[in-house]
Amino acid sequence: MHTRTFIHGFTAALTAALTLGGGQAYATSDSGDQPLAARVVTYDAGASAEFRAAVDRGAAIWNERVDAVELRPAAAGQRANIRILADNGWPRALTTSLGNGTVYIGRQAVNEGYDTVRISAHELGHILGLPDRKPGPCTSLMSGSSAGVSCTNPYPNTAEKSEVEGNFGAALTGPAPVARPVEIVD
Fold first, then answer.
1. CA-CA distance, 11 to 54, in Å (whole number)?
2. Is the peptide bond prior to 135 cis by the omega test (within 30 degrees of 0)?
3. pLDDT digits (tens, 9 = 90+) for 142-164
4. CA-to-CA distance for 54 and 106, rounded, in angstroms?
5. Quick one: DSSP state of residue 145?
6. Above 50 in pLDDT, residue 28?
7. What does DSSP say about strands 100-106 and 92-97: parallel, antiparallel, or unpaired?
8. In the annotation, is 123 catalytic?
9. Which residue among 123, 160, 163, 165 is the active-site one?
10. How many Cα atoms are found within 13 Å in the side-chain-facing hemisphere of 17?
11. 40 CB contacts (<8 Å, ≥6 apart)?
């Protein structure tokens, strides 16, 4: 994981206040020259059935590509920020706020030949604040199904990575995001 340094202005009190909000962990440095830890967003893939490995790989891809947020499996008994379910419909994400919501890994798209890791990374991208970008090329993760079944690219492009960094970097320094349920059906 890359490191990212943020300037002065963060205090331990702000960090503690943010940590208590929403069950998400934050870390900071008062000196300004220390790296700021990623915002931890937990996920529960216990109901993702046969897609569990694809979900874990999708989360790992985001963790390899961005610094401001880290996706981690929720610990036993811990309330997760993201719930991931398998169903027979089309893949979709229902976001409640930045870093929070429900992802459905729909078997319909898988049965049509779409790649499960790409689906997982794409739907997690919605939870990380990214919209669909359709139609789009295979090089854009958020182009989703418009790239066709032959597209198996599960990696966010530079613009998508930058947008997630901005979303979560701003979340660390700005006001708490407003919870607005949004369903994104791909």
1. 38
2. yes
3. 999 999 999 999 999 999 999 99
4. 12
5. G
6. no
7. antiparallel
8. yes
9. 123
10. 10
11. 24, 25, 26, 69, 70, 72
